[in-house]
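Possible race condition, two jobs.
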Amino acid sequence: MMHRFKIVPRTVIGSSAWDRFVEESSEAWLFHTSRWQAAAGAGKDRSFGLVNGSGILRAVITQHSERIPEIRQAPLQGIYNGRSGLARATGMAESEKDELDAAAIRAIRHIGRCSGALLVKWELPTMAPGPDVPATSVLAQFGFEIRSVPAKVIDLTQTEAALWMEYRKGCKSTVKKAQREGVCVSCARDVADVESFSALHAETMRSVGARPRPAGYFARLWTTLSPAGHCEVLLARLASGTPIAGIMTMSWKSATYYHAAGSALTHREAGGNTLLVHEAILRSRARGDQTFHLGPTPRREQVDEKTYLVGRFKNQFGGLEVPWRTALLFLWPGLAGARRAARSLQQALKGKKKAEHRAEMGQD
């Protein structure tokens, strides 16, 4: 049976109908909701739903267009999904899923070209709908480049003792040291606490050469989402009361996601950042959540050194390794070839530098 789908913008569907669908779909998470989109304030909304011939909403896609951050020399636009992906109606037959996936990808490509975007970049994370929705095989058929890195998900249905056993030895030692030296963890009570966290996060971003979030970003998320229990900010403080680290988590549908964290460079040895993740995991379990999503934990050869170190920090808390996929589509085909050539040249130069270094050290 053939299914015909009509593309309807989120603004036409309306926030109430959109969020009702998201609430009912097992493939939708917090990042699909209208309130998240309003709070995140990311670019121009390009979200849409797919409606069948009977006028029934069968899937939603949250995406936006914004300036490509890696290209600062020119105001080129990209289409991004903000870690949400395609969320389909519960109980859908496999045949309808296949048709819907293809219809969705064609619509994404059309919207991207009509909006003048250079590329489409989707993150397919560990939260719902998961790294295989839409099917990566379908994405590949439409020309998407699929990249996969490891990510970690912690099973919160275990006992606290079992969770502790999964921590690496150094992680346990750091948590105990921080507790012994009087580092305490508290939940943000007001916007001033959230701004303290924002400052710590900005300090961390600058230290790794990344751009901090825009002013007011974290406060807006917290103000919008925390009243319903979907967002929490924890701060670690020295015995003197000085904040030294912070973490922001998102919670929905029995899952918690490690959204952002930061720490003061001068107090890294106090272990506040490690203690915070430990406390966030325990708080999530106490709320009744079933999983704690740490996010990407790429291997050294997959990313730059600083990104790898962030993943290594997360790895010390154990958990199950699962894929975190990125799907990239250049909307103008010639650019994909140019990108591959540039990447090959970059790898060749890197290999040449390593060989020269070994020669200088007398290793050849």
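Job #2 (started ~2 s after job #1):
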Amino acid sequence: MVSASDESNGHAVTSRTAIEAAERLQRHLETHAGQLVIDADTHITDVDSLHALPRHRYETTPDYYHGRPISAEDAILEMDMAGVDMALVWQNPATTVYGGSLDANTRTLTQANRYVLDSALRYPDRFIPAGWVDAKACGLDYTLELVEKLVVDFGFLIVKLNPAQNGYPINGPLSLAVVDRIVELGAIPAFHFGADTPFTPAEGLRCVAERYPERPVIAVHMGGGGAGYLEAEELYRVARVLGLECPNIRYVFSAKRDTHIETDLIAYQLAGEPFCRHLFCGSDAPYGRMTWNFGGFRAMFQSLIDGAAHTDARVRARPGLFTQEAAQNYMGGNFARFVAGEYRRLLAAQQPCSLRCP
């Protein structure tokens, strides 16, 4: 176990543009947390700069295919249709084509992250930018350098790893070296956490969470991801319990079976504080439709609020277990307050701007 105070020692955010953007975002989230609907898992792509292969497919068929890219502007159109005010955005791995060398791959991934940054600067009231690293494609040394750029120069609060798709254990030495650097810089590690590969088991996530018990860890999909229903069944169950045992784990509902999402909500609402603050809603767009997911979230919460006729006995036995306020928290308030609070902490760690900023 590593103490967060031992590791978070240093650099924080130093770019003046990044600091100003983070401060503005923090204020916006704090001011409007009680009203915001936030999608906590969205992938955007600079479609004008697509590599030749994904560009050909994108331009030759209007049909959906796995990871069909959406631009920042496409995402906003979908958000408006879905009644979503803001979205956490990171790059889309399906459209990031690597060139072979570690250096070239790092440049490609840096550009994908830069598009996320630029989009958030263009639409500061709509996007919460987050970073993405790939230690397998870029190598550890380049990845550690990229982590620093994402946090220190870009001002990203959250940096995601995808051990499942990139093929290394979530609690292996490669992953932990990257997580150590993220936490050292004061940022938050996030993971694809699903049953679609053997690389992200629950005990692996527990290892990461217990390594930094004072710092949050975000597990996207809460055991779902690309797994089939039966494949994911056991991880769904174990993940639900794990989050109640490790209070620093935060989960994003995306690419997950709706029946298990409802069971998670009931379990965490019954658990009360702080656990009812640890669940966030998402769509995994473009892998999932925001309209479908947030339409479903709204209908599900209404059925939980109208609990007298609910099919779950725990809900019927606890009139008033779910309220409009509780639903709003899950739909966006939880994530808004979480991000605002963590940005406040990260910005407080910075040295005086006159000493560090260009």
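The chain has 16 helices and nine strands.
Logs attached separately.
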